[in-house]
Amino acid sequence: MANFSEDLTWMVVRDTSSFLRKGRFPSATFSCERGNLSGKNSFKFSGLANKRTVDVQPGDGSSLKLTTTAKDFDAVARKPKAMRKTKVLSKSMTAVAKAVSIATADTFYRPDMKRAALAKACTLKEAAKRKAAGVTKGKPARKKWAWGK
């Protein structure tokens, strides 16, 4: 992957990736690859075609994992374990937002991904909070119909 440009990689991967999830409509094509923040099958969000990727995943309990690709991608391209750097974020949402902002925009890593990363981090943090509180969405109660009355 290190020998090819990002554009060439995208041209190969966009229609033939094993991570594609196609819907009923041709316009709804999603991707579940690592490093894809929004799940959209586009070059901007692709974790396979871009050398610099950002990903936010749920961790243990209410913590989150912020994963970025190493800045010296070409040097570690043949070492998959060293290619990704993971940071555990287990503090409040403001601390998580600050860490995500520093990792994306403030260091000029992927400033275009700041908004998507913050949105996903907020969603995952809220879901962890709901899970810890024991709140679940249940099915609505069935209405009992009185037939013949």
From TrEMBL:
Alphabetized UniProt keyword annotations: Ribonucleoprotein, Ribosomal protein
Superkingdom of this protein's organism: Eukaryota
Domain called Ribosomal eL28/Mak16: residue spans: 8-126
InterPro entries reported in the protein's UniProt record: Ribosomal_eL28, Ribosomal_eL28/Mak16
Recorded GO CC terms: ribonucleoprotein complex; ribosome
GO MF entries: structural constituent of ribosome
GO biological process: translation
Transmembrane segments: none
A Pfam family that the UniProt record links to this protein: Ribosomal_L28e
Keyword Ribonucleoprotein set for record: yes
Family: Belongs to the eukaryotic ribosomal protein eL28 family.
Entry protein name: Ribosomal eL28/Mak16 domain-containing protein
Origin organism lineage: Eukaryota, Haptista, Haptophyta, Pavlovophyceae, Pavlovales
